[in-house]
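Re: your question from the hallway

Yes, I did run it. Sequences:
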Amino acid sequence: MNHDARAWAEGHRSYFEDQLRSLVELPTISMDPTRGPETEACAEAALALIRHFGGTATLLRVGGKPYVHGRFGDPGRPSVLVYNHLDVQPADEPEWKGEPFRMRIDGERYLGRGTTDDKGPALTCLLTIAHAVRRGSPLGFQLLWEFEEEVGSPHFSELMREHRAALGNVRAVLVSDTLWVSAEQPSMDVGLRGFQGLLLKLRTAEVDAHSGVVGGGGPNPLAGLVRVLAACFDASAGRILVPGVLDDAAPVSEAEMDLYVRSGFDVERFRSTYGFRRLLASNPRELLRRLWTEPTFEIHGISGGYQGPGIKSIVPAWAEAKVSLRLVPGQSPAKVVESIRRFVAELDPLVEVLPLGSAPAFVTSVDAPECKAMDRAAERVLGKGLALTRGGGSIPAVAIMAEVLRAPVLLMGLSLPEHGYHAPNEFFDWTQARRGVELYASWFEELERLSVRG
Amino acid sequence: MNHDARAWAEGHRSYFEDQLRSLVELPTISMDPTRGPETEACAEAALALIRHFGGTATLLRVGGKPYVHGRFGDPGRPSVLVYNHLDVQPADEPEWKGEPFRMRIDGERYLGRGTTDDKGPALTCLLTIAHAVRRGSPLGFQLLWEFEEEVGSPHFSELMREHRAALGNVRAVLVSDTLWVSAEQPSMDVGLRGFQGLLLKLRTAEVDAHSGVVGGGGPNPLAGLVRVLAACFDASAGRILVPGVLDDAAPVSEAEMDLYVRSGFDVERFRSTYGFRRLLASNPRELLRRLWTEPTFEIHGISGGYQGPGIKSIVPAWAEAKVSLRLVPGQSPAKVVESIRRFVAELDPLVEVLPLGSAPAFVTSVDAPECKAMDRAAERVLGKGLALTRGGGSIPAVAIMAEVLRAPVLLMGLSLPEHGYHAPNEFFDWTQARRGVELYASWFEELERLSVRG
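Structure:
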């Protein structure tokens, strides 16, 4: 326990709840082109939050959505850069029990889109920085809040190129957008999968037509896409079939898998969290290998034709499939796109393959003193050291920051599997927020000691 | 030309247009459960139309939507029963250039959902009957207008059972819900394909989940359905792969195919009507075989997951596919469902297969004197005899009427391929309406002569 940080957190609980509500109630859905005004309003609110605690705050713009940049302390000082994102996924699922963009408090749970991914953790980081500043930490602190994480951070490289100098001397980067293996077992990701989004489009006619009149003679584009997708991916085995895609995927050693299996990941808890009727592997080692270290191929949605009540017996004129792959170290997003393009073109030259956002995979070293410091902080505050895990998701900014800032990047988030990243009825909870303040505060103290020693 | 009938038609053109507008502007979408009030209003409007010309008109109800029944002349007389339907397909296609349920007149074209399928032809039949009555035809006439044709006529059998007696002595049935092979070549269908609608459902989880967190471990139901659908149907060859489905499909003789090829069907006109980028056969004989005499498997829409802007990187919890098959003589809808159920259950026991409406295929004999009479009428009025064709679509009422009424059923519609059955920007045109009045009027006269001779 970190008594001082805990008291600070508890003293700011109602402030945290009020501010989280304000952020959640701005639907900053980055993939919805109509949400510009809400994004700008959220960016302004974020500036005000930082200034409330005495930081300087500015909007950085490089095209696309703004970035919120906050700074505490003398810019000349080595600083800890904390990255979060304030954009969110859409919330169109029918399973939402309340308005997704009205925050609801249920006991210590905060329900609403963006509460855990990633507005709650962002606010937790800000609270911790404010605490460190108040007690006179010799470290500098910077906040970088993005509004395009959920669409693959298309402008992040440009941001780093244009504003590298302004970021100055960065001692370490904290990314608080990852998940613990469970509420009982804090964990730190040592890697993330990459991402490649794709849109597959097939137009076979000018207009939808009566399937009694043209059926059997005119091609069905939904059936055409189905054929192509089934050739790309074997859903039964969960295996990618496109030649070349898996060629460069780096295998993971059994020793590393041992580490992951020891993390405390529980197959039944994983199954029941999402209510899966079946899994692609039931052995924990195999399941973790698939979730953390292997590429995926997912179909997110198929458009075209008719989806209303009953059957509208048409042969549609067009169909589209939204697809993405998670990538692992070794795989190049560009090469993956090229392999799929070539394969699909051979199957059906009418199918267009359009890339939609990408990020390479990322792995870090856990031997860095900053990582060991986080482990010590966890031991002290949470009563147990960090399990080491990989994140199956993707944060495009991570690889870019690691390369440009040449500082260790720690993937140390606060979310729990049951919080429902990208899912209906997403929530965050006060215990995780309070633990976050304690954990990060202790890590800052560890870093100060490292700096003194170093 | 039938001078008297033509003058009658021309004299009623503005009446026809006004009444067609009234019918079209009631969106009688039978597969939309919220359209009950519009359907009842349309049924009332239909009663008024029949009474306007001195017929008696009642609503027959057997559960489901009402049927409009009209009668002209002494119920004891042998009558011609004319079948049409007043329900329509949805009109949700983005390609509509105007409001689908506001009729727009463009030259002699009447644009709007239902104009050609089947409100325009229904009104044409009514006009012709009124003409025959006015000139003192010795025949009786009955009209039967349905509101559930587009959802597979689920109550038609029951209607026939309960109201057979009221229909009395039926001399012949005219179904004016079919298409000419082209504007230059009137044609009569000697058969129709049957229909079997299916909904395939796959739920693999309780909630949509982040594909970075569960991807690779949790199954993707869209990919699962894609696998099953691809195993059922080879979109490249346009071939059904489900064992048993094709077993009882009656082959068509080359002599019969010769007849169809001579109908004047034109491959390039077919292609350009719908703007197909490719066809499943380019040889006219092969294309006609596929369109008129072979079963189909069409995917009409696939739901589940995310279809909005951008990519929402989730593993969906469920997916559904709307599918239908057109059936040919010999195939039993129930046996087809059973074959698909068995096949799909082997592939993936979690996939549910739910039947959604069905109709057997239908073939008639062209040697019936009533058919020969229609051919003579066409020769006289349109200057050329009827090409014989098959209809690739399905009209469930047809097989039921043929069986229950034991009268020849003539599939002699007025629509043209370019009118856009089930398609956006559907239209009907005055020339076809006027030709219809002339053709049907002459057929009635032929029937009177047959009756005298017979």
